Amino acid sequence: MKSVILAGGLGTRLTEETSLKPKPMVNIGGKPILNHIMKYYSKFGITEFIILSGYKSYVIKEYFANYFIHMSDVTFDLKENSIEIHNSFSEPWKVTVVDTGLNTNTAGRIKRVEQYLKNEDSFHLTYGDGLSDVDIDKLFKFHKSQGNPLTMTVTRPNGRFGTVYFQDNTNNLGNFQEKPQETSHWINSGFFVVNPVIFDYIKKDSDSFEKDILPKLVSNSLVAGYKHYGFFQPMDTLRDKNLLNSLIKNNKAPWL
């Protein structure tokens, strides 16, 4: 089974990093967040990936072209113009990097790789900038049991600020919760299982997966929601990046 990763956006809210590289290549704990996502899927036996690149696509291609050397001890004999590899730590991955265009929207990017997926019964889909500890095996089993062409993992987000409650008819605080989890709504946490029939709904490069395709499928009762109560954290801003780095530094990263 294959995992498709959307990795072509501009990452405009993280320009401190993305002026030089695509957002999925921003380092978390010394490795690109894209690497963390792929390693997480690998825990569940998924080792074939299709990367939907766009902005600075060459950075992703060069990363995987040199991955074997990056992950090994190497002796460079400059006099003999030779390379000797020692103790390879490379992954058992098959990675297809597809340049889906600089201005192509998310659904359009997915449509561009139909040829690689049309013979699959289903495939995993996620974004190249979010981490979670969702159980991929349970997600897939849920998808198969529902019979819908698409399953979306949903979660309840943590609030960004502490919540204050006042005592009745006074100015005294009755309760304070530091960044409590929201209880009133669910959000898309970006881990999907998809059947190839989705390609029939995508008509052009400008189609948005989130604004065009998902609402259309939802209106036709074709999307199942898999409720995830665990960890989920996107990397949209420098604050998010620092949070993820802090979790790794303090050995509290749930996805590792």
Ends distance: 22 Å
User: What is the SS-derived class?
Assistant: alpha/beta
**CATH fold descriptor:** Spore Coat Polysaccharide Biosynthesis Protein SpsA, Chain A
Write out the CATH superfamily name.
Answer: Spore Coat Polysaccharide Biosynthesis Protein SpsA, Chain A
Radius of gyration: 21 Å
Tell me, rounded to a whole number, the average pLDDT: 91
Helical content (DSSP H or I, runs of 4+): 25-40%
Low-confidence stretches: none
Shape category:
globular
At CATH's second level, what is the architecture?
Alpha-Beta Complex
How many structural domains? 1
How many β-strand stretches?
15
Q: Could you explain the architecture of this structure?
A:
With 256 residues, the chain is an alpha/beta fold. The chain has one domain: Spore Coat Polysaccharide Biosynthesis Protein SpsA, Chain A (Alpha-Beta Complex), CATH 3.90.550.10. Helices cover 28% and strands 28% of the residues. The chain contains nine helices and 15 strands. The protein has helices at residues 15-18, 33-42, 57-65, 67-70, 106-112, 114-117, 136-146, 209-219, 238-249; strands at 2-7, 27-28, 31-32, 48-53, 73-77, 82-86, 94-99, 123-127, 130-132, 150-155, 163-166, 173-177, 187-194, 223-228, 232-234. Strands 7-4-1-8-13-10-14 form a seven-stranded mixed beta sheet, sandwiched between helices. Helix 5 crosses helix 8 (209-219). The protein is globular. The two termini are 22 Å apart. The model has no long low-confidence stretch (mean pLDDT 91).
